[in-house]
Amino acid sequence: MSDCDCGGHGAALKPLEEALELMLGQARALRDVERVATLDALDRVLAESQASPIDVPGWDNSAMDGYALNSADLKVLDNRLTVTQRIPAGSAGQPLAFGEAARIFTGAPLPSGADAVVMQEVCERDGDALIVTQPPAPGANIRRAGEDIEKGGELLSAGERLAPQHLGLAASVGIAELPVIRRPKVAIFSSGDELVMPGGKLAPGQIFNSNHFTLSGLLCRLGCRIIDLGQVEDTLDATRDALARAAGQADLVLASGGVSVGEEDHVKPAVESLGTLDLWKIAIRPGKPVAFGHIGDTPFIGAPGNPVSLFVTFCLFMRPFILKMQGVAGDVVPPTLMAQAGFDWPKPDKRREFVRARLETSVDGATRVLVYPSRSSAVLSSVAWANGLAVIGEGQVIKTGDNVDFLPFSELLR
Ligand code: AMP
Ligand code: MG
Q1: Which of 34, 66, 218, 266 falls between 20 and 30 A from 229, CA-CA?
Q2: What is the CATH number that goes with domain 16-32+183-325?
Q3: Under DSSP, is residue 403 helix (H, G, I), strand (E, B) or coil?
Q4: CATH class of 61-143
Q5: pLDDT of 281 strictly over 80
Q6: Where are the domains positioned within the chain?
């Protein structure tokens, strides 16, 4: 039997949160740390908190192109000063004496004796003479030493998944290498006698293997090393063999297909004979059956073969599990947004449904969630069309204009 979209009998369905908690409770964080160049640390998870070795800025400096001066001098000298030096960014000036001003540029160190910078737009120049038409308050247009980052203060905390701005921040204090958790090794295989890899020829009844490509792409985004075990025949022996080989060399085994309880579904007995397995019927649509178990110490997650089910199972279970293994601190389940529904959902369902959806802004400026016409878990075009998943709660009915929860792919697939 496949991942059916029929309602099931309700009784045995496990709530999503319960299944997720059970699963994530068993995700053990990888301990191995490697040092990589800061530039190579993108999307990796920081293994040790980083303190700043310096103040940033390192000294008081100008926030403007203008003139550095002592604001008290202006009062005494009727707003007229003499420009005696020029301080571009990258050089250090001389102390200012009474009545002196320095031509200064953004980012250049403030000379001693100055307590303000006046922007050039409110000054007049006559040779070396400077006439300030709007005198600045003491402290104006100065970026203070340590204003951004204080020396010794925590810059980045362990468990942060490093985004471009984090790399920039590390670089801004001169950190050239970062300690990160090693990449998880994830073994994958696809079950199904009907599967042919693109490039091959389809015999009658066969289909191309798309899950391999979706899953590989999703894993690459998470920085995993993929161990590809290819396609596995629908027999118990082949499934057992693939699982044993996978578990022997990976931190995590993921598979698609064969997780139901039909005659052609061998994942359940295969995992059970090698280790332990929980096969959950989860109160979600699509992706109702999810297999979770262990072969020795190696965790295994099996998704249904339907391409949309695999995708949703990845987003809801596999991704948070991998983030946990990588030691990501804080929430590994992305937050939902709330947006206005541009559709009706008249029939309530016992299961929470993850509907392929698009958040779109129309010409009138209104942002609405639209849903794909087909709800079938076999229609992969729906995922390609979507930019997120609308989440329809258990028993929820929606009318156009109501609020609906939305999980953007920008959060789910990063
Ligand atoms: P299963 O979970 O094995 O019962 O498969 C459910 C449905 O998904 C069937 O229509 C399969 O042909 C299809 N399917 C299984 N594996 C894949 C795959 N790797 N790529 C595309 N479709 C698949
Ligand atoms: Mg199958």
Answers
A1: 34
A2: 3.40.980.10
A3: strand
A4: mainly beta
A5: yes
A6: 16-32+183-325, 33-56+148-181, 61-143, 337-412
